[in-house]
Specification:
Order of helices and strands: EEEHEHEEEEEHEHEHEHEEEHHEHH
Helix content: 25-40%
Structural class: alpha/beta
Largest sheet: 8 strands, parallel, barrel
Radius of gyration: 19 Å
Shape: globular
Length: 332
């Protein structure tokens, strides 16, 4: 599987990364054995970049990922986690489905982008992961905390990078305007842009991707399937974690019709689309089972015919300026 270095950090990521939110019981429970099998199958397929966060299952994702990687050679893979939500005792009880995770709500999330909060968050993540270091740390969803994130959280990450505690730093969000600000006003190595550069929509092409390219930074794309809509645009499909609006659903179905005419599953085109932009270093895929990991690996090997992309353009589903994978592009 192809690898790329994030900015000038020296941190390598594979073209597909393991998004570990699902093994934190995103929406539905996943057993310990299934979570471990998902990581094992992804490893066997060549994945060497694994992304997690305290938010995912109130720490469950970090614990499971750390356990699955513990016997692997530490120099052979890259782990990223996130800061901005501390996990504190005193949760409300019941389940955590209000926040999207099928886990007991024994802990509570506390927003904290302060310098002390960043250090405390990383220390707690290392304990849950069972690792002595993480390679990459993102400021996680600082949308409503810009002053603290730029004034304290980012400088704290920059100091930790200079001290060698972490090797690369960035910010991860579901919007583009603040990610563009990070690229303009800071020295981040990478931004994680979720849902805003996909086969369905390319908002990130306006500013984030060109800025990253001009600054020598990298982009990791999350949400390439737009909450599953580009896997199966059925009646119950979701978009941005909510029921898909009818115009969005109709557009996804038009995409599926075009890719299907060329014998290409919609999810294959969606998975492979982001990497055509030179600023994109990796596409994260949320995986909850070994079968999903093996299916993702198989999608990377499918040829993507040039006429399919031409038809997507001619039907107004992709702009003329949107880069697409090469004819019959196949991962090596």
């Amino acid at each position: 599987m192809r690898t790329t270095t994030l900015g000038s950090s020296g941190v390598a990521v594979t073209e597909v990364g393991f998004g570990a939110a699902p093994i934190g019981n995103l929406f539905t429970p996943v057993g310990d054995d299934a979570a471990r099998a998902a990581v094992d199958a992804a490893w066997d397929a060549g994945v060497r970049y694994f992304d997690t966060a305290p938010h995912y299952g109130l720490g469950l994702s970090e614990r499971r990922l750390g356990a699955a990687l513990r016997d692997r050679p530490r120099a052979g893979y890259t782990v990223s986690t996130k800061v901005g939500r501390l996990l504190e005792p005193g949760g409300p009880g019941g389940d955590d489905l209000e926040n999207g995770f099928a886990v007991p709500a024994r802990l509570r999330r506390v927003w904290d982008f302060s310098a002390d909060g960043v250090r405390r968050s990383i220390e707690a993540s290392l304990e849950r992961l069972g690792l002595d270091h993480v390679d990459l740390v993102y400021l996680h969803d600082p949308d409503d905390h810009a002053e603290e994130a730029f004034g304290q959280g980012y400088p704290a990450l920059e100091r930790l990078r200079s001290e060698g505690v972490v090797r690369a730093i960035g910010a991860g969000m579901n919007q583009t305007s603040m990610l563009a600000r990070f690229l303009r006003d800071t020295d981040v190595d990478v931004v994680l842009m979720a849902g805003r550069y996909t086969l369905l929509e390319q908002e990130g092409l306006a500013e984030v991707l060109p800025l990253a390219a001009s600054r020598g930074a990298s982009v990791v794309v999350g949400g390439a399937f737009n909450s599953g809509l580009l896997i199966d645009p059925g009646e119950d499909a979701t978009y941005d974690y909510a029921p898909a609006p009818e115009p969005v659903l109709a557009r996804a179905r038009r995409l599926r019709s075009v890719t299907g005419r060329h014998g290409v599953p919609l999810r294959a085109a969606a998975l492979r689309f982001p990497a055509a932009h030179p600023a994109v270093a990796s596409t994260l895929v949320g995986l909850r089972s070994a079968d999903e990991a093996r299916d993702t690996a198989a999608l990377l090997r499918l040829p993507l015919p040039a006429p399919m992309w031409a038809d997507l353009r001619s039907e107004g589903l992709l702009g003329a300026d949107v880069p697409v994978p090469d004819d019959d592009d196949e991962a090596s």
